[in-house]
Amino acid sequence: MSQKFIKSQNKNSQSPAYGKYFATAVYDNHFIGTEELSDFIQRQASVKKSDIKAVLQELGEAFKHFFELGQKIKLDGIGIFKVGFSSIGVMKLEDCGAQTITTRRVLFQPETTRVVVGQQKMDDGSVKQKYVNAITMLKDVVFEETHDNAMNVEPESSNGDSTNAGGSGNSNGSQSGTSGEQGGSQSGNQGSNSNPEPVTAPEISGTTPFEESTTVTIQGPQGASIHYTIDGSTPSAESPEYSEPFTLTDTATIRAIAILNEVSSSVSSKTFTKGTPDGGDSGDGLDQD
Fold this sequence. Notes:
The protein is mostly beta strands and 289 residues long.
């Protein structure tokens, strides 16, 4: 089995990706519901279908309970769920409060798995593995073109999961491919906006050089999802999503992008060096590529 796609051309003359062809996901009209999930899990495990179904039906209530307590939920092999929201900007500090919070949504950060994709021989003769961070649930998915007219392109929805290649080109002309891991933090796509606003690149903060460890914080524009890498590779929408400060204990180069309304910012980069301060360049700034 495989994820099906069709070839679609971007016909928005205002888009930087105008005239280009994209692989666009298509789906049938059937949803896998609680009944079919229960059937499948029963075949994989020695648990009664009735028990599985009862657990699945209670899952939503469990999520709601912990969200109301301000908790994040982590499911092994799936990822992290948490509450997100939008807020109206106000000029005075005292006017900012719960009353300025508008749209609420569930944010999903999928679990990632390090996948080795090759090796690189270093100048000193050593061999370094090259790897990517793949979404655990998607790393074995294969793709296949279909000509089945019964399959449909998913319509645009409020959660920002746009699968219409006719207007999904981002600022560099490539398809951004945003998906549910951004949990609805985006809406619409560039195809419906003839003059998309540029997205401010995120700011990476932390102490460098550092002796034992340093805490890294990444801040981006309101409503944007931030994706980053720690190995110096170029981040994309499939890179881990930043959710909270993290600690580095070894030298590393952090690169990050902000994605808003399916438009990506330029890449921010900062190198954190473990060692005694020597007055050298911290390596922070925007990439020029």
